[in-house]
Every structure is written in C-alpha cells, then in structure tokens.
Input
Amino acid sequence: MTARDAIADLRRIAFLLERANEATFRVKAFRSAATALGALPAAELTERAAAGTLTELAGVGDVTARCVTESLAGEEPVYLRRLAATEGTDLDTEAAALRAALRGDCHTHSDWSDGGSPIEEMALAAVELGHEYLALTDHSPRLTVARGLTAARLRRQLDHVEALNAALPPGFRVLTGIEVDILADGSLDQDEELLARLDVVVGSVHSGLKDDKARMTRRMLAAIANPHLDILGHCTGRMVTSRPAGVTGPGDKGHRRRTRPPSDFDADAVFAACAEHDKAVEINSRPERQDPPKRLLRLAVEAGCRFAINTDAHAPGQLDWQRFGCERAALCGVPADRVVNTWPADQLLAWTGAHAG
Output
C-alpha cells in the first residue's frame, strides 16, 4: 500500500482533539511528535518506524509512534479513525448555510499572548477550513495573565504579519488586530496611534466583571462610542461550563476555568449604541462562553445590530468552533447579511475603516 503522510495525520489528530476541547496534554503529544518527526529526512523516518526506534526521539511516545507506523504502512491510523467517527452531528440547514457564508474569523489568539500555537499554524489551519482571512487579536497590555502585548511587542507583531502574508497562499491573509481590554472608565488599553493602524479591534471587558449595572453600562457605552472599536467581544463575560482541575483546553496555559455569572448591564442601551455607531456584537463560539445568551442575542437582533460570529480560538482546532456560534445565531434569527464576517475582506476593512472616520 502507498504510504500516507504521517506528519499530516499527526497534525490532523491534534486538530480534531482541539476541536473536541480535549485536554492540552493530549494535543501537545501529537503536535510535539509532528514537530520532532517533521524535522527528519523521509528515509530516516521510514527506517526508524521499521526498526521500532521512533520513541527514542524526544517528543515521541508509544501512541504517536504507533500512529506514524500505521500511516507509513498506508493505513489510516486507528486513533485518527476513531476521532473522525465521533466528530459530531451535522448542522441543521439554517446553521449550515450561515457557516458556509462565513469568510473568516475576527477574534483569534496566538502564542504571542495566551494562545497555544504560532501565528503561522493558526493561519494555515484557517486556510484548510476555507477561510479567506483570519483576524489576529492577541490581548492588550493590562491583561498580564495572558501575556498581553505592549505597544512595542504589537509593533513587532505587525511587522511579522506583514512578512507572513507575503508567504501565505494567494487569496488568504492575516488581518492585524487586537482584543483590547475595556478599562474601568471605558477607554481602550492600547496606544491610539496603534489602534488606528489595526484592521480589526475587538473590545472586551476582562476585569471588574462584578461592577454594578450603572457603572458597567457607562463603561461599555464609552467603549462603543470610541471610533477605534469595531466589535464588542463576549459582552456578558460569562462562563457556563467549567473544567476539572488539571484538564484545560489547548492554549489555556494551564489556567483552570470556572463557571462565572454574566455581568449586569443595560442591554437595551448597549445594543442601541452598537446599532447607532454601527459596531458589531460578537457571537462568541467558545463552548464555555456561549456569549451572549440567547435572550440577549434576540434582543440585539431586534435592536438592529450587526454581528461577528467568532471563535475566540486559542489553538488551530478551535477555529472550527464557528459551527457552535452559527447554531445559536440560527436559533435566534440572526440574518446572514448582518454578520460582518460573511463579507469579503475588502468590505470588512471598509466597514472597520469607516469607524475611525
């Protein structure tokens, strides 16, 4: 039988594990093995597989070695076959149509902040999913627990993205961006000159989530009125699921996630402001967030808001979580023509550019 691409099979397994929100150590085992074995000449890889010496290499364990041996023998690895068989149910018609209409993702993270993978890996995974663009929105300085980018680091990232785009497949590009903290007074946590240079600015509240309703409302309204903000990220800040100690999602850097109630704010006023200033409300697709709740999502639809169905991905496999946001959007009657990432990149950038005048 013709040998399969063993490294591609390892990366596919890692992708499917990330998409299934499996523990970080499982994902890391396959990505580490793919990196270690991908550096070997093809002949040495084949020789080691035949001799049973793959596990002598750092980063290669019994399970990953077995997968490689099966791939080189022309067989789909059993591990991959089992994962593929449990991928989940198909989307219903409306959600599937919305997912098919999406051209990109406007909220993603890399290992420049608290993501688990390099920008290049995130971009190539987006290409494989059929995206036309990926907005890179690593965190801003005040979120030190997430290694938020200082102004100097963000400038270096902009140069890196420019060089990377020149090397990516034609028809795809990484958009520059940030998930900027909305501070206590509603200002945005980054230099204005830098915010003006970015393609996409997502603004989110990460601190003071228990502020009283009036204070939180003023804070959010000030941010929405800021000409640099384009998308209001995970507006309630809630966490609807938790993970047991020691089991984290890929890219979570070992932090334990706990359930958290939604912040309290005047949703009518906030969504009216989003509609007035032509800013988008994010439909966050992360399984533990599901933000905004369906009640608020329906309210935002009635208010005439635009939306962005984003993954908030911290690892390549999480980029396929948009299906979850699409399911909730379809349930709540979100029209596809009001979802900004159904637009081509040039239209999206014309919209974000218009906010800054």
